[in-house]
Amino acid sequence: QVQLVESGGGLVQAGGSLRLSCAVSRHIFNTVAMGWFRQAPGKEREFVAAISPSGISTYYQDSVKGRFTISRGNAKNTVYLSMNSLKPEDTAVYYCAAEATNWPYEYDYWGQGTQVTVSS
């Protein structure tokens, strides 16, 4: 069974930073692409960032380019989303996803989400 557990969300002021973590079942981590998505209140879930199994390729939504960085900590079976220069419009529940079926936008496995709130 594949398990994804997100952590690191919280409340931060505009302009601040947060780093989200997603711990992944060891038996799949090294072979699958990973992604981060978010869903704001009243809106559909949207793609944020993705990283290939090797970590060499990354892909970002335009609105987060230059502010967010996705990375893999292979020794810890963890994928990270470092978020800088946060804006109130970044407020959402952030979800980790694993094993892309249509990279970078569609995945087989999902975490439960972690709340990020950016105050103005």
Condensed summary:
This protein is mostly beta strands and 120 residues long.
Overview of this protein structure:
The chain is mainly beta. 3% of the residues lie in helices and 53% in strands. The protein has one helix and eleven strands, in the order E-E-E-H-E-E-E-E-E-E-E-E. Strands 2, 4, 5, 6, 9, 10 and 11 form a seven-stranded mixed sheet that branches. Strands 1-3-8-7 form a four-stranded antiparallel sheet. It is globular and about 40 Å long.
Give the fraction of residues assigned to helices: under 10%
Beginning-to-end CA distance, first to last residue = 40 Å
Could you tell me the strand content as a percent range?
over 45%
Q: Spell the H/E element sequence.
A: EEEHEEEEEEEE
Question: Which labels suit this protein?
Answer:
120 residues; mainly beta; 4-stranded antiparallel β-sheet; 1 helix; globular
Topology overview:
Blueprint: E1 4-7, E2 10-13, E3 18-24, H1 26-29, E4 34-39, E5 46-51, E6 58-60, E7 68-73, E8 78-83, E9 92-102, E10 106-110, E11 114-119
Parallel strand pairs: 2-11
Antiparallel strand pairs: 1-3, 3-8, 4-5, 4-9, 5-6, 7-8, 9-10, 9-11
